[in-house]
Amino acid sequence: MLFDLPDPATLYRALLDRDEGYDGRAYVCVATTGIFCRMTCPARKPRPENCTFVSTIGECIEAGFRPCKRCHPLQPAASADPMIGTLLDALDARPERRWSEEHLERMGFDLSTVRRAFKRQFGMTFLEMARHRRLREGFETLAEGGRVIEAQQQAGFESPSAFRAAFARLVECAPAEISGHGTLLTDWIRTPLGDMIAISSASHLHLLEFVERKALSTEIGRLRQRAKGDLGIGTYAPTEQIRAELDAFFAGTSAEFRTALALDGSAFTRAVWAELRRIPPGVTVSYSEIARRIGQPAAIRAVARANGANQLALIIPCHRVIGADGSLTGYGGGLWRKQRLLEIEQQFRRTSAA
Questions:
Q1: pLDDT in tens, the chain (354 residues)
Q2: Residues 29, 37, 60, 173: which is the catalytic one?
Q3: Would the annotation count 173 as a binding residue?
Q4: Is position 29 annotated in a ligand binding site?
Q5: Most buried residue, 3, 35, 68, 311, by CB count within 10 Å?
């Protein structure tokens, strides 16, 4: 089960002890290096505030982390299943290939068997793993001012069309259309819970989302349309401010976000968001309670929709809303992140109580 893992302090002690009982049951994502490791990794141990523990390799990859070259976290699955080992070797040999189902069929593999095996071992399909591996490199090259051709090569795409197609799936436009300056600027922010994309104007933050959120491309496309296509890569002051505030949040020094926000929604939606921002860190409430607080107790489903429409993760803390039965319910950034955010915020609650 997703939440069978013990608390972070117990897991960190297991990491220090290289406890074999957790090998394959938990993985550590290290914010300062951008890699993920097995719990038995012999490498020098990171500080606890830089560690995030998850239960599947897929969660590590989706959050933007790369496998460690010392403990080889993918190796046990490869050894247990020759098919997985063969495909991982093929991916290492041809990381630039735009892998498709046709490639797998040509290699003699049954598509459903491959899909089940990778989902079981890694929590994601082989094709999803290949796509995540390439695209981040290209985006970061563009963010650093590199040309599109450099980003394409850095991401390992043989052809400009393949890179454009993969890039467009993420941000709803071709890389050439988003490079350079614009009314809105897009930047990549690394956090201990994975990479996030921030979009700001010169005065306000418009979007802050984890990169694998399924609705991200739609949200970016909508912002780009409102900006009449004037969306670039770079940073404005609101992005730099939220970057610093996120650093303070994950370091445990502040849960306060003061960055100016561009809130685009109906009066009802904005009322829900305002109420969400009144929930103290470490506290959870139900959808029905939010509906009651805004004076519309029957509008529980509308509250849930407004919650899901939030595109300013953490700042508008929709992760603090749970089901009436106490279940975590859905979260666009992944339930494991919701659980971890609530755990992180407990320290702020304890500080406030003291």
A1: 344 678 888 999 999 999 988 888 899 988 777 789 999 999 989 888 888 888 888 888 877 678 898 999 988 888 878 898 899 888 878 766 778 888 999 999 999 999 888 888 777 788 888 877 666 666 666 655 666 566 655 565 555 665 656 665 555 555 556 555 678 888 878 788 877 889 999 899 999 998 777 778 788 888 888 887 777 777 889 999 999 999 999 888 899 999 999 988 888 999 999 999 999 998 999 999 999 999 999 999 899 889 888 999 999 999 999 887 777 777 777 788 888 888 888 888 776 665
A2: 37
A3: no
A4: no
A5: 311
Say what the pTM is.
Answer: 0.59
Using the structure block, give the residue that is written with the tokens 């290290």.
30
Helices 300-308, 267-277: inter-axial angle, 10-degree rounding: 80
Residue 24 CB-density burial (10 A; 0-12 exposed, 13-18 middle, 19+ buried): middle
| Ligand-binding site membership of 41 (annotated) | yes
Contact status, residue 169 vs residue 217, Cβ threshold 8 Å: yes
What is the CA 270 to chain-centroid distance, rounded?
24
Q: For the purposes of burial, counting CB atoms within 10 Å of the CB of 268, is it exposed (0-12), middle (13-18) or buried (19 or more)?
A: middle
**Residue 51 annotated to the active site:** no
Residue 66 and residue 143: Cα distance in Å, rounded?
Answer: 19
Alpha-carbon span 134 to 253, nearest angstrom: 34
Active site annotation includes 318: yes
